[in-house]
Every structure is written in C-alpha cells, then in structure tokens.
Here is the input.
Amino acid sequence: MKILFLTHSFNSLAQRLYVELTRLGHEISIEFDINDAVTTEAVELFRPDLILAPFLKRAIPAHIWRHHVCLIVHPGIVGDRGPSALDWAIMRGLPEWGVTVLQATGEMDAGDIWAAETFPMRFATKSSLYRHEVTQAAVRAVCSAIERYQSGQFRPMPLDYSRPEVQGRPHALMRQTDRAIDWLRDDTQTVIKKIHAADGFPGVLDTLCGQQFLLFDAHQAPHLQGNRPGELITRSQGAICRATTDGAVWIGHLKAKSEQAPPYKLPATQALGESATRLPEISPASREAAAQSFRDIWFEQHNQVGFLHFSFYNGAMDSEQCERLRQALLTAAQQDILVLVLMGGTDFWSNGIHLNQIESAASPADESWRNINTMNDLVQAIITRTDVLTIAALQGNSGAGGVFLSLAADYIYARKSVILNPHYKSMGNLYGSEYWTYLLPKRVTPQQAAALTGNRLPISADEARTIGLIDDCFDLAHQPFRNRITQIARTLANSPDYASLLQRKQAQRQQDENRKPLAAYRAEELARMQLNFYGFDPSYHVARYHFVHKLPHAWTPLYLAKHRRIVPKCLE
Here is the structure.
C-alpha cells in the first residue's frame, strides 16, 4: 500500500515504523505537519491508500480525515484521551500502559479503535519508555491495524466507556503545578518519578541558587545524604546532587528559564555556572569515590571479559566525555582480559558529537573542531587496540559518528529493535569523520556505502546485518540481549582459536596501515570537516542551530517526502 506518514517530526517512533513498514513492502512517504495547506498538497501529490500519524501535535484537517482513513498512534491505553498520556501514567505509578491506534475524527483521541497493545511499566524516564516499550507496542499495533485495513473485513471498535475493557479516561494537559517537587516532603523515589515523567519535554520547573531551571536526567544517589532536604550537596561529571527527605538524587541536566540563558539543556554544572563551582566535587578516582560519584562511564570485569559502559544523555558525546571514555578504554584494555565489550548505554549507543555543547561554546566552530578530534582519538584507540578482541554491543539506537564508532570494534551486535542512521548529511551536509572512509568500506560495498551515507534514511538492525554493516542482531528486550552478549564474549575468550584470531587482527591492522596510514584517512576527512566548520558555506551551523533550538520545520526534506520528488506529467 501507499502510506503517507503525517508527523510533527521524524522521531524515533516514526523511524522505527518507517523501516518496519518498508520491510513489509509498503511504499512510504513522509510529510511534516506544518500547516493545513501543506498537508492537503501532500495528500493530493501522493494519493495515499492510508494516512498514518505516528507523532502529531495538532489535529488533522477535517477535509482530510473525512475523505481518507487516517490512523493516529496514541501512547495510551484504550479510552485514554488527551495530552501528557505517558506523563500521567508515570506520575500515577501505573503497573501497565499501552498504545492505541485509532481513526481520526472531529474529537481528539475519540475515534474508532483499530488496534491496541499493552506493556508492563518500568521505573524509567518517559523518553526511555517511549523509545522502547511504547515503540515496540506501536509497531505491533500499527502492523495489526494495517493488516486489518487491508483485509477489508474488519470493523473498528467505537470508543464506548461503558465497556469494562475500556480502562482509559480523558485527562487534561499536565502542568508544572502537577509536576512540582516538594523537597521538604517528597522522598527520593517521588522526586525521580516526577522528573522521569517530564524527561525529554518539558522538564520539571524548580529553583536552584535563586534561578529558575527545568530539571532533567535524574538518578538515585544511594550513598549520599544532605543535612536538610533540598540543599545542594556535591557535583560530579557535570551533574549536581541534591538532598531529599530520605537520601539524595543526581540531576544531570538543566535548562534555564531565562531570556538571557540558552533555551536548551546543558549539563547541570555548566548551566549553574559559578554556583556549581562552589560545590565540593567528587571525582571517581578511587573505588570508594566511584561508588558515590555520578557514573556515565563504568567498567566491569567477569573473568577475562571486560564490559565498558558509557551512558551519555541522549547519546551525545562532548569533548570531555570522549576523552574520559578514551582513557577508560585504555585503562580497561590494560586489565587481565581477552575480550573487551563496548556496551554503550541502554537507551543509546552513541549519536556522535554533542551539538548542544557546541552551540553553547564561545566559538561553535572551534568546539566542533575540538569535539570531532576527540571523537577521532577515541575511534583510533579502539582501532589500534590490537592486544584484545573488541565487541560493540548496541543496546540502543545510534546515529552519525556513533555508528562509525561502533564499526571500530572487531564484532558488532545489536538488539533487533535498534535503528541506525549511518550518515551525516542531514546536519547541514556535514562530511563526517571518525575514520568512516576507512571503516565503512571494510564492511559494505562501495554502492552500499554511497547509499547509506547519501540517502540520509534510517535502517533497521536486520537490514544492517543483511548488508554486513553489523555481524548479527537478536532479542528485543535488554536483559536477554545482555545475556547473549555475555555468552558470545565468554565463548570468544575461551575459544581455542583465540590466539589465531588475535594474530589475524594484528596482521590485518599492519597490512591496512602499510597500504594507507590511519593518519591519512583522518587528515582527508578533517580537511572536509574544516570546510564545514570554518568555510564559506554556513549550512552546518544553520542546521545545528535549528536542531538545538528545536525550531519548527519550514518544509519536509525531499529525501523523506517522496511525493514531492514526483514530477507532474504536465511538466514532463
């Protein structure tokens, strides 16, 4: 079928649905929901069999839903209506939630129901639940709804609150008064739950050091406690620690509510500025300090297998994080291990350079240059680590330089639900570095490499495996994936062929170096990046500004809007 995606943005859910429905043979075209006229034009150009709205912030025009079947993906159980659906579910501590696919009508979220799926709730951020459980349930529900639509035999169920299975109810937009933290009464779990429910957007409004901030990225600080609830205790790795009634929480990111401050999230210590520097700092230099510090990088060893975790907020890696991770990598490889597993984080593997940090710098061009060079140093450290075998274990999505970071490992495995964006061009025609011109051709054909970097489209883990970009993908859930990775790593470490595999790796690295030094690849890539950062074409800086400031889309790029690439017959 021809399916038009009508969406506010091409977010993680829209991307996952795009790859899944494309795999099933459907022809997908995408239009950003900018205004009624643009939506009308998209429908007239594409003439879809079905319209799917995976992520909308406003109603579909009446003249569209009256003449076309429009399916809305709502992140709530059957009967749930209104905004902040997942926010309310988290705040109320519900044990189960779901996704409903319903038909657009004149009332928001009140149309006939085509499919619904439920899932058990985790104690996690809204963004994490959306990226995993909601997305998985949405894929199942959308595929079921489309199959029912194609059959022509299915009649969707009208919303009827008298039915006992309809458990959801209408609700209002959650406001900051609903989210407010009472530091003198709320315990640690309550504080974290409130920040979890606002993660991504809009954050929890609060006052720190006499200034208003939106709070994000909360974690329990199990070994710390303050003298009085609400006081700031310490800082570590960019996060601040604040006392609760029964302990303390780490707050990783803040967004200032001030016209003079940047309107985007920054590490908490950076957003607080001088006020943060007056806090005592915990540096995870010793094992005792590491237990108290804020951890975004940590190492675990089980026999002769090492696991290096790096869980960076939204997968972005700034210059300092890249350098800390490189040092952790070098230290880990010096342990008594045979296999080093690069675990990334549960929500993201890596998304490359940190655009928010770059935007906030005195010279974004200079910080871009510094960031890409520290990323390159990290990738080089993995490539040249020839005394152990390395595995990249992709638990979460990855994009841009993060994908090529994973290619530096000897073996690459991913969860089946992972989405990869192995390209840079959508960020202002950025050329990219991270030794991609060396790493990518080692795994795919020149034609495949050109398509991956030029098409600017996401690919599934299954497709990545098929073309050889990764070695394998398996398991949708996190724990079974981690168990399988552990088994693979142990088997590799205990393999009778281990010595010959390591010798082969060392010989191949030397042969590659003799053919063309790594330094040459880096110099060629950085020459192009230097033009992106310092040249006459400002496209990268404009695209970064739009991305960081979350400016509304003015148009849909042609690589997404297939219908706008069609030339009308009258113009042929």
